[in-house]
């Protein structure tokens, strides 16, 4: 299929992009930004998205600030135009290497080579790996708009099906991950490798000396947006890491969610997937930490 008709604009820098979005919105247009286009274009081709105008951010790839990593104390900032593949092959250190390891789940190599970190987060797919990682690692999304820059905590970012807190006239310039997690993992299940996940799970573990002091459990594909599961996280607090605890955490996660029934699978099927994936991810996260 082909997309519905739209107007094409090319932004030369962030200020230009913000200005174009503002002008188009004021004129009654429904503009969308396009960076890698790996999420937006398929939706346009199937006419699931029908923007009246596209603002191409391609020239912004030349901006070093938008195409680089920056460390500041315990945080890691990733520029908005950094691709999945760049993250995949980069050495991010033990505190954030879950980001690199998780990239193997993002589509296929051509998709990872074009798609961008910020584009995936702004797209707001409930099963997108970057959306789960943003919640897991307390990301802060930095957006620039006509009112100046602002920061959006990941906990406030995802509002429903493909809906985020980024305003129509704002451009995301960076994503800052503020929660180092040496023991973390993401896993998922799809019908075929590279397909959209039916359910995915991201976890992290906190603790030392053989006892946990807490952890995080984030699920995708079980609600309109990715969600933390506090009932499962409570199981980890004070527990002794091992198969029994991890299985109990997976069971708690499955019991706490109310997933949808749809063509991809029933609610009961998604609960079973959630239980299995959380358990598997916890094992991987603990083993990664132990090998360091």
TrEMBL record:
PANTHER family: XANTHINE DEHYDROGENASE SUBUNIT C-RELATED. This is Molybdopterin dehydrogenase, FAD-binding protein. One of its GO terms (molecular function) is oxidoreductase activity. Residues 1-182 form the FAD-binding PCMH-type domain. The keyword Transferase does not apply. Keywords: FAD, Flavoprotein, Oxidoreductase. SUPFAM superfamilies: CO dehydrogenase flavoprotein C-terminal domain-like, FAD-binding/transporter-associated domain-like. It comes from Amycolatopsis decaplanina DSM 44594. SMART domains: CO_deh_flav_C (SM01092). It comes from the Bacteria. Gene3D superfamilies: 3.30.465.10, CO dehydrogenase flavoprotein, C-terminal domain, Uridine Diphospho-n-acetylenolpyruvylglucosamine Reductase, domain 2. It holds the Pfam family FAD_binding_5.
